[in-house]
Amino acid sequence: WTYVVTNTGNVALSNVTVTDDQGVAVSCPQDTLTVGGTMTCTGSGTATAGQYANVGDVTGTAPDGTVVTDSDPSHYLGVTAAIDIEKATNGADADGRSDADVPQIAPGDPVTWTYVVTNTGNVAIAGADVSVTDDIIGTISSIVDKGDGDDVLAPGEVWVYEATGTAGDLISPDPGMVIVDGCDAGGTSTSRPTYENVGTVTVPGASDSDASHYCNPPAPPLMCPDGTAADFVVEFSGEKLLPRAGRTTQTVAVDIPAGTYGVTLISGDYARGSNKAGNPFYQPNERWRLLGSAPSGYSVDLPDTVEDISGVVTTGLSVVFNSDVTSITAEHWSVATDDYHMNSVVPEYACLIER
To answer: Of 124-133, 160-169, 334-343, 346-355, which range is least confident?
Structure first.
């Protein structure tokens, strides 16, 4: 600040002192002024934000002891560049990866990201100086709402930017996607892969960023054909009839981790019939067994006739896989008393639920 002091009277002045009502330390080159004399005093400080006002006061003493005074105000506006961005995914803020409002979007469904930019400072910003980017998408140039419509983002004005895309498969994400664990509001369930991208706005002297998220809907529970939930459902090809005593096996490739599982076996709607003598097919002393590629297994007795076995659900079984299993074999065998009483089946489904 400069304080220019002039003796406008017709007598010399002594004890000339300049002060500032805001406490600014003012330095003057002298403390006397001749008639018509002028001096420039100075003070300095650090600008503050917003409207600032201060008043310079001067006093001087005439030869007869009269004290003369004068005051003069001055002002400045401390400009502050400040900017805010709020990013949303399909209308949801979804700031946190496990927030309750994180949208669940199926792979292939449309996604709209909005970037709401607000000038929270007190200085206007030219539109050319406003840059909005997304760490995944890149530069965001589409403005769907430009406030008052001009190319200046005034203090308090809001502009809305927008980008669109397609939801990805977050189990098998595309390269470049940022996937985090989330979609577990309140920590009450198992977290799922969650897409995260961050919007950033930059203006001269300020910037701001905001993240948003989405996840795919949870996969529907795996169901056994009897209507119960299962962790794994193994499907075999169906009925196998043997003309004489022996065993029937079918092997299916699987990927099941080691562990203890409860097992449900389901037989199919197999052919019913009789031999040429009109006798029903019997399966005396039948047993089913399920074998994993690791040392494991269980067995269960079955009904003695094809008619009885059709549609049977056998529950309450368990199996222990000592290591990860890559194949499962269903094995059925019987011991017969004569040639034409012989036939054999394997189960149609084996449903496993981890214990």
So the answer is: 334-343
Distance CA 85, CA 68 (A): 56
CB 180 within 8 A of CB 198: no
pTM over 0.85: no
For the chain, the straight-line distance linking the first and the last C-alpha, in angstroms and rounded, comes to: 80
Asked whether the predicted pLDDT for residue 41 surpasses 90, the reply is: yes
Cβ-based neighbours of 116, under 8 Å, separated by 6 or more = 85, 86, 87, 88, 158, 159, 160, 161
Strand partners, 112: 164
**Distance, CA of 85 to CA of 258 (rounded, Å):** 48
With contact defined as beta carbons under 8 Å apart, do 30 and 41 qualify? no
Residue 58, classified by CB atoms within 10 Å of its CB into exposed (0-12), middle (13-18) or buried (19+), is buried
Residue 117 β-bridge partners: 85, 159
